Automatic annotation (TrEMBL):
InterPro entries named among the record's database cross-references: SecE_bac (IPR005807), SecE_sf (IPR038379), Translocase_SecE/Sec61-g (IPR001901)
Name recorded for this polypeptide: Protein translocase subunit SecE
PANTHER family xref list: PROTEIN TRANSLOCASE SUBUNIT SECE (PTHR33910)
Subunit structure, interactors included: Component of the Sec protein translocase complex. Heterotrimer consisting of SecY, SecE and SecG subunits. The heterotrimers can form oligomers, although 1 heterotrimer is thought to be able to translocate proteins. Interacts with the ribosome. Interacts with SecDF, and other proteins may be involved. Interacts with SecA.
Gene, per the UniProt record: secE
Compartment annotation: Cell membrane; Membrane
């Protein structure tokens, strides 16, 4: 790998930074809402699973 001068390195970094495409406000808002909804759904799902397993474990412990 060839060594580059600090100036050339900075120019390369700037060139790569110009290629970055930032999301629009609409895309960011839509993604944030989607993440919040999925977080809510998954938390309710795992609460249900945890409750069911809790009852099963309590039932098994009563048998012992």
């Amino acid at each position: 790998m060839a060594k580059v001068t600090p100036g050339e390195f900075i120019n390369q970094v700037r060139a790569e930074a110009r290629k970055v495409v930032w999301p629009t406000r609409q895309e960011t808002t839509t993604t944030a809402i989607f993440v919040a909804v999925m977080m809510l759904l998954l938390s309710v799902f795992f609460l249900g699973i945890d409750t069911v397993f809790g009852f099963v474990v309590q039932w098994l412990l009563k048998l012992a």
